[in-house]
């Protein structure tokens, strides 16, 4: 039977087998925490928010060069501090009134930086929502790194669900995919219309964001030039903006 496989097919099956085997090793929270601390480096100092410490995948980490099939999880979005999230977190830290005493929901929270910024600004209640369960563990570890109680972490997809009691929704670098952008647009419209929720979006000028209909409903609040190292890691991006969702029916 093996003879009927092409070398490419064989190599693909082998990679899938290795990946499945690697995944099976990380069932408990404890083993995932250990993996994160062994395979990330405490960074963030070269970001727009040097005061927030984060465990990130850097060039000093094994998996910067390692065979990708040995990575035991989905793509590690939570191990990167995205330029949209950096601008959003910077804006919150500079404008603590946005969060003070509020209930804040960070959707697509990744490493948890914006949720952590909201906590540092005195939010009454913070929810970090990311469909990647490993992101929840990374967020807990990053909160501890900043001597904070972790936010409530939710891994279910909340987009399209009814949310109540949330004053502020944060979206850092969530407009990287056309279909996701469209579902966010519909959902945010509903949140704002039904509950009057305030919505802040951080984006570094991604094509899917710039060309989307939602852009016509947003008002720019602030623009930051990205630090040199962030520009190098995100080829072609030079600045990142924070936008306020401000639909026509508010005018
Ligand atoms: C580009 S990263 C941004 C992470 C973080 N906000 C930042 O700026 O550093 C996008 C994140 O959105 C998460 N995500 C994608 N679709 C989602 C959904 N429907 N609900 C919640 N999170 C989602 C991904 O798992 C990923 O962690």
Automatic annotation (TrEMBL):
GO terms for cellular component: mitochondrial matrix. The keyword Chaperone does not apply. Transmembrane segments: none annotated. Keywords: Methyltransferase, Transferase. InterPro entries: Ribosomal_L11_MeTrfase_PrmA (IPR050078), SAM-dependent_MTases_sf (IPR029063). One of its GO terms (biological process) is methylation. Pfam families: PrmA. The keyword Transferase applies. It comes from the Eukaryota. Signal peptide: none annotated. One of its GO terms (molecular function) is protein-lysine N-methyltransferase activity. It catalyses: L-lysyl-[protein] + 3 S-adenosyl-L-methionine = N(6),N(6),N(6)-trimethyl-L-lysyl-[protein] + 3 S-adenosyl-L-homocysteine + 3 H(+). Belongs to the methyltransferase superfamily. ETFBKMT family. This is Electron transfer flavoprotein beta subunit lysine methyltransferase. It comes from Takifugu rubripes (Japanese pufferfish). The gene is LOC115251018.
